[in-house]
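Please annotate this fold before class:
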Amino acid sequence: MCPGTKFLLKVVWIHYLIVFYTYLRIFYHSFPFKKCHPIWVKKAWITTGIKISCQHKRDLFLLCRGIKNPKFSSYYKAYCKILTEVTKTAKKLHYNKLITNSNNRVKTMWNIVKTETQKIRKDEIPPMNVDGIVVEDHQTIANIFNTYFTTVIDKMGTNKLVNINVSSDAVYPLNYLYQVFTSQFPSIKLTPVTSQEIREIIKSLKWKNSHGYDEMSMKILKISLPFIVSPLTYICNRMLSTGIFPMRLKYSQINQVFKKGNKTEISNYRPISLLTSFSKVFEKVIYKRLYCHINTNNILAREQYGFRSNSSTETAAYNLIINILEALNSNKWVGGIFCDLTKAFDYVNHNILLSKLEFCGITGKAKNLIKSYLNDRHQRVRIKNTYSNNHFSEWEKVKQGVPQGLVLGPLFFLLYINDLPGIINDKHISKPTIFADDTSIIITHPKISAFKEEINTVLEKISNWFQTNLLVLNFNKTYYMHFSTKSKLLIDIQLSYKGNPITNTLSTKISGTYLG
């Protein structure tokens, strides 16, 4: 790092720290930390009358057990039956009131269902099985989780650094870009941010009590908006003009979210990053400028439906089904390859990403800013126990990937795989539909022999692209599905790539829609 860059880094760092620590000092003074003890939460439908009736039921039970009179026993059973009905009615009235007064009735209904079926997600982590040893200490578990999340890609040995500036005779990530796009895109222009823009960004963020490592929620930041907007505007403009992202904003707190399988296995959890409230504002400023540049120059592939405005899983599923039906109506053979990537966001290589961003026009200060944003990031894992006590792991450096939960992460991933649709798209034979990291390709052809050949060609193309870009295709969860009308016979197609077989299936789930 040259002396000039070091000086600019120090200037941005000092300006941010002055604002950050001043704000935190006021925050901690206004909201001192207090230790709360767990208390029994009263169920809202339990009225005073039901409480008295429950106590009366208990008294009747004791009398019934002592007297042993058949008539008294019948009276006790009848009383229990009436009390049960009264309780059910009270609970029903309470839930009806919650749904009626709710701003989001669907979400409220699902919360009620989860409450009644006892499927409410609990933050408590069970004892974990690590190499055959059961670990119960929460502090140790937090450190194990963090070490796993930061080193899992290195252990798999696939995400090695790639030298981008090599001979063009070989196949390298940028070669695919030049195959899809004829030339590089115009350079981006980073416009200064205004106080009004910062104000609109903060207002657009949700009122949430969740927070990053600084314990300051977005709710607090929104309340203090009039007092913080000017210093934030100044620091954001310093960030854009110097191309340096404040170091203190590159620390994220990780919540581990259970996916499926055995809850004692660490590999069955995925990390979700919680940013500081300030970091969300800074990332939004960068995001708006990148997205404006991308939209103006039509950079994103039309086949990509993930993380885009005016697009959804329903749109992606609709496009996929239309491609299938049009081919069947044209009396063609139709098959689909549905790809699944292993830890797609975690496998994003920073060198390849920066080179692709430069091709897309993210150059100069903008490229330096993204590089600064990606480098020297750190994370720690938080774990809660039964009594809501927090246990934190040590801070560890993040070496690769774009963490899920960040503002810029999804956009970076879209640009990382932006050339994939162009490699396999042929309107007469293969049509891809992509939603974030879910890639589906529909292959069609009027002749059966050519159809089988094209399927293998497409599989080889996408496998080579994933391998070149250091993404890992999960062959255990990648499927081939054949589509046919009643007038056509089903054909047996067995796909494989370098000894890895692709499983045939009669149904699959794509973008929330079941096909089959």
About this structure: Residues 159-170 have pLDDT under 50 and may be disordered.
